[in-house]
């Protein structure tokens, strides 16, 4: 992604959100648009594919707080008109020193291939302006591939324990014909004769001296004389590929896992982007989860609550016996230590068992007689504070 893109493209408009929209709403908007325009849902529709790429590019910036901050700063700075040709600059009539300046000069216009400032950030842009042609960290080269995203649903037990699953993607991948270099089989890219393989050329603009992407090779540093017939010289094609992905134990619903270098391949041998996997965890019929603790609700009878009992409850790897003390109220939580979700440090959360005292809707005559005898021999619940209020308002 070039720094020029950051200035000219309105990523907020691409995602249909306002500049003040919070991060979680931007994420929701991106997911909705990505699902609608995903190539798998729109086979053979090039407009949908371009829309998907645009949405992914916008979210790559706005979905990262640091990049979003830089993007907003750059848009604000250049949007003010301070660097446009024709604006009053130092050195124009009535002002001392300096030269007119046009932001398009930073990128060499449309013919420069859009520029390739590797970081895409405002710091890379200004280091290129004031580097005096040194190349620096923002030096062009084969463009890094875009990050891609996908979603996977895991069973509750697999998410807690960890699992390795095959993940099938239809996304850009390295061209098998040219192995990513963009050249026709039997040929090789050659060093650019203009920049001699550096990917940049030096340029003076009045008082400024800076590097810009080589216009002859678009900043790649090499030239392909005979393009690969499969990828047309880009080094990548859209294809179906399968990856074996390891999901660590304890992965949570909504978690985002980054697989470095598994995204879209870079153009003509450039580094690949990253693959981000959004995890959805299917709910379990018995267990819930709070952080590293598992939760379970167990019904008990009135007599078990009054007299106490030993309660056998399931865990993810067997069963444990918990002691219900006499006089246990409904809603009390018992804890089975170490029977929850395992952490990376080898420790584990707990199993939290909530007791639910069940009151039968119907009882036999014998049971009713026994309960009436129980009631006669049991002191009433302490309700004096309630009775006092009833007398005042009654």
UniProtKB/TrEMBL annotation:
Amino-acid positions noted as binding Zn(2+) 1 in the UniProt annotation, renumbered to this chain: 175, 178, 228, 231
Recorded coiled-coil stretches: none
Keywords, alphabetical: Chaperone, Cytoplasm, DNA replication, Metal-binding, Repeat, Stress response, Zinc, Zinc-finger
Binding of Zn(2+) 2, residues: 192, 195, 214, 217
Cofactor: Zn(2+)
Molecular function GO terms recorded: ATP binding; heat shock protein binding; unfolded protein binding; zinc ion binding
InterPro entries documented for this protein: DnaJ, DnaJ_C, DnaJ_domain, DnaJ_domain_CS, HSP40/DnaJ_pept-bd, HSP_DnaJ_Cys-rich_dom, HSP_DnaJ_Cys-rich_dom_sf, J_dom_sf
Subcellular location: Cytoplasm
Domain of life: Bacteria
Domain CR-type: 162-240
PROSITE patterns reported for this sequence: DNAJ_1, DNAJ_2, ZF_CR
Bound cofactor: record note: Binds 2 Zn(2+) ions per monomer.
SMART domains documented for this protein: DnaJ
GO CC terms of this entry: cytoplasm
Function: Participates actively in the response to hyperosmotic and heat shock by preventing the aggregation of stress-denatured proteins and by disaggregating proteins, also in an autonomous, DnaK-independent fashion. Unfolded proteins bind initially to DnaJ; upon interaction with the DnaJ-bound protein, DnaK hydrolyzes its bound ATP, resulting in the formation of a stable complex. GrpE releases ADP from DnaK; ATP binding to DnaK triggers the release of the substrate protein, thus completing the reaction cycle.
Domain comment, as recorded: The J domain is necessary and sufficient to stimulate DnaK ATPase activity. Zinc center 1 plays an important role in the autonomous, DnaK-independent chaperone activity of DnaJ. Zinc center 2 is essential for interaction with DnaK and for DnaJ activity.
Protein name as catalogued: Chaperone protein DnaJ
């Amino acid at each position: 992604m070039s720094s020029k893109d950051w200035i000219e493209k309105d990523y907020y408009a691409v995602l249909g959100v306002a500049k003040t929209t919070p991060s979680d709403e931007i994420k929701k908007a991106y997911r909705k648009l990505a699902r609608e325009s995903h190539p798998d849902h729109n086979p053979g529709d090039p407009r949908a594919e371009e829309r998907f790429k645009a949405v992914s590019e916008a979210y790559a910036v706005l979905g990262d707080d640091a990049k979003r901050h830089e993007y907003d700063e750059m848009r604000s700075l250049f949007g003010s008109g301070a660097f446009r040709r024709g604006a009053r600059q130092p050195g124009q009539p009535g002002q001392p020193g300096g030269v007119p300046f046009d932001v398009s000069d930073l990128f060499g216009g449309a013919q420069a291939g859009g520029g390739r400032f590797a970081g895409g950030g405002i710091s890379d842009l200004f280091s290129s302006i004031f580097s005096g042609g040194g190349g620096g960290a923002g030096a062009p080269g084969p463009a890094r591939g875009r990050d891609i995203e996908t979603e996977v649903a895991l069973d509750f037990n697999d998410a807690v324990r960890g699992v390795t699953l095959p993940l099938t993607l239809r996304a850009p991948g390295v061209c098998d014909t040219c192995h990513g270099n963009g050249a026709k089989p039997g040929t090789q890219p050659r060093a650019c004769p203009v920049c001699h393989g550096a990917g940049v050329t030096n340029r003076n603009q009045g008082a400024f001296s800076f590097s810009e992407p080589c216009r002859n090779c678009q900043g790649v540093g090499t030239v392909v004389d005979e393009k690969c017939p499969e990828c047309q010289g880009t080094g990548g094609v859209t294809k179906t590929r399968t990856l074996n992905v390891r999901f660590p134990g304890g992965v949570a619903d909504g978690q985002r896992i980054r697989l470095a270098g598994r995204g879209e391949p870079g153009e003509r041998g450039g580094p690949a982007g990253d693959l981000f996997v959004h995890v959805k965890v299917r709910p379990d019929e018995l267990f819930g989860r709070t952080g590293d603790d598992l939760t379970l609700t167990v019904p008990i009878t009135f007599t078990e609550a009054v007299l106490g009992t030993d309660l056998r409850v399931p865990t993810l790897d067997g069963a444990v016996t918990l002691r219900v003390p006499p006089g246990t109220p409904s809603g009390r939580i018992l804890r089975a230590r170490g029977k929850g979700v395992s952490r990376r440090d080898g420790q584990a959360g707990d199993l939290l068992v909530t007791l639910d005292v069940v009151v039968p809707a119907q009882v036999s005559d014998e049971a009713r007689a026994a309960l009436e005898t129980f009631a006669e021999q049991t002191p009433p619940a302490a309700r004096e504070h309630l009775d006092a209020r009833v007398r005042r308002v009654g």
